Amino acid sequence: MDFFQNLAGGFAVALSASNLFYCAIGAILGTAIGVLPGLGPPATIALLLPVTFKMDPVSAVIMLSGIFYGAMYGGSTTSILLNIPGEAASVVTCLDGYKMARNGRAGAALGISALGSFIAGSLALLGVSILAPTLASFALKFGPPEYFCLVLLGLMMAIYLSEESVLKGLMMGLLGLLLGAIGLDPVSGSERFTFGVSRLTDGIDFVVMVMGLFGLAEILCNLETPENREIFKTALKGLLPTRQDWRQCWASVMRGSILGFFIGVLPGGGAIISSFAAYAVEKRLSKHPKRFGSGAIEGVAAPEAANNAASTSSFIPLLTLGIPGNASIAMIFVALMIHGIRPGPLLLQEHPNLFWGVIASMYIGNVMLLGLNLPLIGFWVRMLKVPYRYLAVVVVVICVIGAYSVNNSTWDVGVMVFFGVVGYLLRKFAFPASPFILAMILGPMLEKTLQQSLIASGGDFLTFLTRPISASLLVAASFLILTPAAKQIWKKYRSLQGG
Amino acid sequence: MRKPGEIIAGLCFLAIGIGFTVGAVKLRIGAPTEPQPGFFPFWDGVILIALSAVFLFQAWGGRAGESHAFGRLGGPAVVVLALILYVAAMETVGYVITTALLSAVVLKVLETKPRVLVLMSLILAVASYLIFDRLLGVTLPRGLLAAFF
Prior knowledge:
heterodimer, A: globular, B: mainly alpha, 2 domains, two-stranded antiparallel sheet, flat
């Protein structure tokens, strides 16, 4: 009963005129950046953060989350029509989606990805509404040692699941922890690593840094090669999948949704991995695995469902534990903090309007996205014909203004440019940016809970191992980091024996 | 294959690790019973130094994993240089002029036709000024054109 009451309250919040407006803005912007290759959700959310400073926090989060899940819808369009994933989470959609378009079935591919996304998004929301309150009340029992281990596990997962090597992920994570230490010490409040620069007293501005790392860096990478884009010209007819299509792939949509939901809950999981996992599962379960890669509709339906379900369920760790699992969710974390709202187990009790309002807005957003995507597909395709140079120059100018507007100072523009160059180089050497961002955000919490645990236990590190919850979390975290290392050593051992 | 870029990247991480560790010692580390402000950064720094060493070792043997080849570096380099000059000149010269020039550089790098380039840079600079300064209340520096705005 409580559940329906809460949800009804949420809908009352989300259906207010202004929140509907922000939800629509978020969904439209999200679809647009999902369609356009070269600007991802984290950068867009960072660019829009300064705009939300003066907004009501509920509206702000509704709009920013709309960008995040809207991008998942839009990302598939470019994958199918251009063989260019607009979003990393749509990479796998290229495999069969583009082939379907080549076979003259672009309409069906676009249709199934939008409908599959819609079904998955709705199912995942149901999951969030049920699972989140339970998890939040469980997390209320956590003390500092449990929280320390939980944050550590979250970080380790983000590192383990990042595509690049675990070693590089760990290095980036530690770099994030160190840069996060710049500014005021969260425990004693004394200044650290500011080198006498007064601008650094508050630490490195997160919003400015992300604009550089994700926004400017992306543009710099694309400046290396002149644009070369070819839109696959096809008559878009029959957007609705046929009955035969449905029979072929309804089970894939369901499997993709469920798999995506559970992968999304894991910190560091998120949309990208879930889409790859869903594709792999479908290929393995299929009676005709050879069809995959040459235009199998299940190969579009499952990953698209999975990435949507995952992007929705990745709100669970944020809203219940206060731990963002990926870079986009980290931006929403920052938006909440700027408004003085601390995400965590207490969020549900202290700000039920925000929690249920955002959840309800996602239901509404999903309906809006279906309406935006299917009938308007011709419009999004036409938008792709705008040359990249115009997009690039606009993004550069918005990055500059965005950075400047945070404190009205050119110092922040300089910091943004600095991190733009850093982000560009990190991409080139394949150092993952997500662990860095998450570590920087979670660093203060990690430090605080570590110190509190140690002080409470009289400096005894065993306190993490004697409490059952923290011990199991810690074991899981070490397992994640030690497995790849053990694998490498084992391989070496075998090759030495063999040779 | 050993890549010099990876060695340099590893050395950068190593230097950052050493820098923060030394800084943390100066802040005082304290004991686990009484951790001081340097406690947490000190251990982060120590672990980063160790991992950077492992990375350097791997990179030396050419086993540091994947990295992407650099394309034509001219484009990014010119734009970064333009951005540095932009930051230096924005306050005194003003937003509209510097932004028009910056946009022109970006468009030039992306091989835009001269006429489109001039038109687009001017429109973008003036339009963004009007939208953000006049409509959204971000006070952008006026600089040399202060008399006209």
